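Example 3.2
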Amino acid sequence: MKSGIYTITSPSGNQYVGSTSNFIKRWKSHKRLLKKGKHPNCLLQNAWNKHGEENMVFAKIRLCELNVLLFHEQRFLDKLKPAYNILKIAGSPLGFKHTDETKKKNRQASLGNKHALGKNIGNKNAFGYKHTPEWCEAQSKKLQGLKRTPEICRAISIRMKGNKNALGRIFKHTPEFCIAQSKRKQGLFWINNGTATKMIKGKIPKGWIKGRGKI
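Structure, written as tokens:
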């Protein structure tokens, strides 16, 4: 059986109690983090740094099925009262508090992370940030008379080609449509939107309005 409860014991007799579904993988995971000095359990990390890898003993203390792991882990936590366990309730983060040292390390790690939570505090480009009136006025003056370079204009033109909804695209109506719309506004005859659309697409002969004769 690969799953069960284990302890990590230092020469001082202090212990860490944990549960796992695979003893070998779990011990390798502990050692990898401890060797790098990045183990989330600062008490266990300090013991490892003090006593060295060769003096830290990993031991299986109970084999059990996965569905009862937490039950037996809690039993050993209550019985052994291990000094290196920060969390006293199996499978729960209740009561956990970061040390000042850990907080400092986390802060240093997040300084170079542009996606870190809270990174936008004081950021003038952050959503919801309100600029001062002085800044807005300065930006307004800065943008007045600003002209795009020929290269930028050419790039925008290429990007907008074929886009019938592009801003600035000019659609020219046919002369017949313009005359019909003009007479429609004057009340000389009625033209519905469907007929106007067909006119635009050239589906009605030039000079004629369906059902109304020649313009």
